[in-house]
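Deliverable D2.4 — example input (structure tokens):
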């Protein structure tokens, strides 16, 4: 039981028709469900923002969607309002098999800090608790799937590798936003960190 599958943010707002839709975001659901049978441990992450979150463009007068702004923790993309706590958009895609989840990690709950990674908020220091869970379960190897390749999957993979986990990305079971070349940058960063892209 040393290998876990981590399914990143397969939520309605990241699927077609959602507030921050990733192209073909729903096309990976059936494949993820099938893959779950191959893993003794399955963990789901869920973006879970309070209304008026600081990463929302609507929280910054005069700013447009996808503008960059400087936050105390560094540069931040300003997103459409998405995955607001308790809304249908924040719910998991209805086709995703959530019954297999050993753990659901919610992230992005601090109104002042965005959280792409399953391990840390975007200040890179505030933990979600996932590392401790994995360590106490004796898990050393992680396979990541989900949305979006170039943001939450990428940040999660880089943090996992930095923490010493062996990390594989199932690219066929991820989809990307690809904002201003973000996908190629993510691929390069993950390869440099020793993440296996399959």
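Example output (designed residues):
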């Amino acid at each position: 039981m040393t290998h876990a599958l981590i399914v990143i943010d397969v939520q309605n707002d990241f699927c077609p028709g959602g507030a921050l839709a990733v192209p073909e975001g729903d096309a990976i659901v059936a494949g993820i469900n099938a893959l779950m049978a191959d893993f003794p441990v399955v963990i789901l992450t869920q973006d879970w923002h309070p209304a008026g979150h600081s990463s929302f463009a609507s929280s910054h007068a005069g700013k447009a969607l996808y503008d960059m702004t400087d936050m105390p923790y560094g540069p931040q993309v300003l997103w459409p309002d998405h995955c607001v706590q308790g809304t249908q958009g924040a719910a998991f895609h209805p086709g995703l098999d959530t019954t297999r989840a050993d753990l659901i990690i919610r992230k992005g709950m601090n109104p002042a800090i965005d959280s792409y990674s399953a391990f840390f908020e975007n200040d890179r220091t505030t933990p979600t608790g996932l590392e401790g869970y994995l360590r106490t379960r004796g898990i050393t190897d992680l396979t990541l799937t989900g949305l979006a390749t170039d943001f939450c999957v990428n940040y999660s993979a880089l943090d996992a590798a930095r923490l010493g986990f062996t990390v594989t990305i199932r690219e066929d079971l991820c989809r990307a936003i690809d904002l201003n070349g973000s996908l190629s940058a993510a691929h390069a960063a993950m390869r440099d960190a020793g993440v296996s892209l399959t």
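The helical segments are 29-36, 130-137, 149-162, 182-192.
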